[in-house]
Amino acid sequence: MSARDYLAVAGRVRMGLNELRKVVRRTEHIWTTGKLAGDDWYADAAALNLHGFYAGVERLLEIIAEAVDEARPLGGDWHQALLSQMASEIPGARPPVLSATTRAHLDRYRGFRHVVRNVYTFNLDVQQIELLVMLLPHAAAEIDADLTAFADWLERVVADECAEG
Fold it and tell me: Between these two residues, 132 and 2, which has the higher pLDDT value?
């Protein structure tokens, strides 16, 4: 992978993190506003945004898997395998992208993503949605820190290569 490719991945990760921050703020706003209004629409909207949050994270991890690892998991369990791959170091190639704690948080949102895609909204568990909304700021901060550190690492690799060459 070229230095330009590393910089492109770092840039896409940083841009994606900005989008994720917007989704987090939007989810919190929807939840708070909806609860105050007493309407039930807020649970559906929050669920959709939680789904969008995880999907956004997963897109960033796929970019890293394809561009840096040059290997993206396949098969029926590829969503879980992607999280495992990103939490693993590839000796001589890259450090872990995600900490074990971040991976565990993401696994919870991964599972919820599956539920949102496979049930009618009126069957969603509002208590589960509330729990995920309440955990979201902490989980998002961990994801932000891990992916920012990885983007920093990519940029350092390029800077080191330029300094040597």
Answer: 132
Domain count, the chain: 1
Write out 34-51 in H/E/C secondary structure: HHHHCCCHHHHHHHHHHH
Query: Residue 94's pLDDT band (boundaries 50, 70, 90)?
Result: very high
Tell me the residue range of the domain where 119 lies: 3-164
DSSP H/E element including 133:
helix 126-164
User: Has this prediction a pTM greater than 0.85?
Assistant: yes
Burial of 99 (0-12, 13-18, 19+ CB in 10 A): middle
Q: Is 151 helix (H, G, I), strand (E, B) or coil?
A: helix
